[in-house]
From TrEMBL:
Species in which this protein is naturally found: Cohnella candidum
Alphabetical UniProt keywords: Aminotransferase, Pyridoxal phosphate, Transferase
Enzyme kind, highest EC tier: transferase
Pathway(s) per entry: Amino-acid degradation; 4-aminobutanoate degradation
Enzyme Commission number, as recorded: 2.6.1.19, 2.6.1.22
The name this protein goes by in its record: (S)-3-amino-2-methylpropionate transaminase
Catalysed reactions listed for this entry: (S)-3-amino-2-methylpropanoate + 2-oxoglutarate = 2-methyl-3-oxopropanoate + L-glutamate; 4-aminobutanoate + 2-oxoglutarate = succinate semialdehyde + L-glutamate
InterPro entries: 4NH2But_aminotransferase_bac, Aminotrans_3, Aminotrans_3_PPA_site, Class-III_PLP-dep_AT, PyrdxlP-dep_Trfase, PyrdxlP-dep_Trfase_major, PyrdxlP-dep_Trfase_small
CDD domains with a match to the protein in the record: OAT_like
GO molecular function, one term: identical protein binding
Database matches in Pfam families: Aminotran_3
GO BP annotations listed: gamma-aminobutyric acid metabolic process
Family: Belongs to the class-III pyridoxal-phosphate-dependent aminotransferase family.
Required cofactor names: pyridoxal 5'-phosphate
């Protein structure tokens, strides 16, 4: 490390990073991990966490990082929120698990009531709980098929809906999720999703949106008859696909088409939900009331729980025993989720997301003229990203994005990429991040951008 680099590190208030590489304890654990853990379980960084609080992660060697990845959007309420820890501690003293199918418990019912209250839709709603986002998707599809009596499910290009068989079938990215994993589930189809960054220069945004809606209408003529489609499933803002924000008129157009043909609309809000986009749920921003919603990730600050919430008559279509699972809606997950929602409402974390997003976009918009590799700065609320391109060709800059992420990590910021080309740097910091922490993290990424662009 140079003297200049040491001075920069010393000037930082919150992080140390690991400019000289992983520490001895981390190296030891990496070696053990290679021996014991399947290689298909990926790791984005050489990072073994010892403790985490708020927006700060500390590794087993005492290095500190600002978490701009948020466990892939799982800790909007921050790492170890005291309210959640206390709620779980109380539940631990009572009982761990009874299986809701065997011995019911009040937190399950209370959480179902709360989600019915706060999710979009001016109609009676019910909920059911599972363990993961992929399980929520599986069950939403089962419910939709049972209610409609139709098999077809339409997802969208670049969409991500999980790594289970049906989740992979609905997911668009081949590598690393689907390659040599088939055959996939039948009666699943993919329609085109907008990518405004690549909008033809001859079209206005509204013309482009109308064109994309017309493509969906053509899709129902050429690929799948609406009489055979049970549901459309859409991420209101695509997550793994690159944090792509579609025109509101596109989402509303698809929603209207579904209504006209008796097709259910499933909003996959697993990553967009719980304040990330500036409202509790992104569907509100787009002005739609989905028939079904899938929820997980930041629902419970890291405890494994997911939900399907929707119109009561649709949710009641399956008969007893046709949906559920041994660990679905565990008592620990339910009390954690209730504490998270209470915290988000009390502290108005969706409003905080809007402030964070404005700060991020303002910072990179100011840098963009200096760095042609920043093709676009985009986002909704605090679900923000920058698209990295080759400044010479304009093509996706996957290697440069990876270099920026590595350099940022060495300096003390944990980042993730996204997009089918892996060239999008996404930001998923906890919404409890302070202004000073956010500013320091952005400055570090700015330094990494400058250094990587010179190399």
């Amino acid at each position: 490390m140079t003297n200049e680099e040491r001075s920069a590190v010393n000037a930082r208030k919150f992080v140390t990073g690991c400019a000289e590489g992983p520490g001895p304890r981390t190296k030891e654990l990496i070696a053990r991990r290679r021996q014991a853990v399947a290689q298909g379980v990926s790791n984005n960084h050489p990072l073994f966490v010892q403790k985490a609080e708020g927006a700060i992660i500390e590794d087993v060697d005492g290095n500190r990082y600002l978490d701009f990845a948020g466990a892939i959007g799982t800790v909007n309420a921050g790492h170890c929120p005291p309210e959640v820890v206390e709620a779980v501690r109380k539940q631990l003293d009572a009982f761990l698990h009874t299986c809701f199918h065997v011995g019911m418990y009040e937190p399950y019912v209370t959480l179902a009531e709360k989600l019915a209250e706060i999710t979009p839709g001016s109609f009676a709603k019910k909920a059911m709980f599972m363990n993961s986002g992929a399980e929520a998707v599986e069950n939403a599809v089962k419910i939709a098929r049972k209610y409609t009596g139709k098999p077809g499910i339409v997802s969208f290009t670049r969409g991500f809906h999980g790594r289970t068989l049906l989740g992979m079938s609905l997911t668009s990215k081949v590598k690393p999720y689907k390659f040599q994993m088939g055959p996939f589930a039948p009666s699943t189809y993919k329609a085109q999703f907008p990518y405004p960054f690549y909008r033809p220069s001859s079209m206005t945004e509204e013309q482009y949106s109308a064109y994309c809606v017309s493509r969906f209408e053509d899709f129902l003529l050429t690929e799948a008859a609406p009489e055979e489609i049970a549901a459309v499933i859409m991420e209101p803002v695509q997550g793994e696909g690159g944090f792509i924000v579609p025109p509101a008129s596109f989402v509303q157009g698809i929603f209207r088409i579904c209504r006209a043909h008796g097709i259910l609309f499933i909003a996959d809000e697993i990553q967009t939900g719980f304040g990330r986009t500036g409202e509790m749920f992104a569907s509100t921003i787009f002005g739609i009331e989905p028939d079904l919603m899938t929820l997980s990730k930041s629902l419970a600050a890291g405890f494994p729980i997911s939900a399907v919430v929707g119109r009561a008559e649709i949710m009641d279509a399956p008969n007893p025993g046709e949906i559920g699972g041994t660990y679905g809606g565990s008592p620990l997950g339910c009390v954690a989720a209730l504490a998270v929602i209470e915290k988000m409402e009390r502290e108005n974390l969706p409003a905080r997301a809007r402030v964070i997003g404005e700060t991020i976009r303002g910072y990179f918009d100011a840098l963009k003229p200096q760095y042609p590799c920043v093709g676009e700065v985009r986002g909704l609320g605090a679900m923000c990203a920058i698209e990295i391109v080759d400044p010479e060709t304009g093509k996706p800059g996957k290697e440069l994005a990876a270099q920026i992420i590595r350099a940022s990590f060495a300096k003390g910021v944990v980042l993730l990429s996204a997009g089918v080309h892996g060239n999008v740097i996404r930001f998923l910091m906890p919404l409890v991040i302070t202004d000073d922490q956010l500013r320091e993290g952005l400055e570090i990424i700015g330094e990494a951008l400058a250094e990587s662009s010179r190399n």
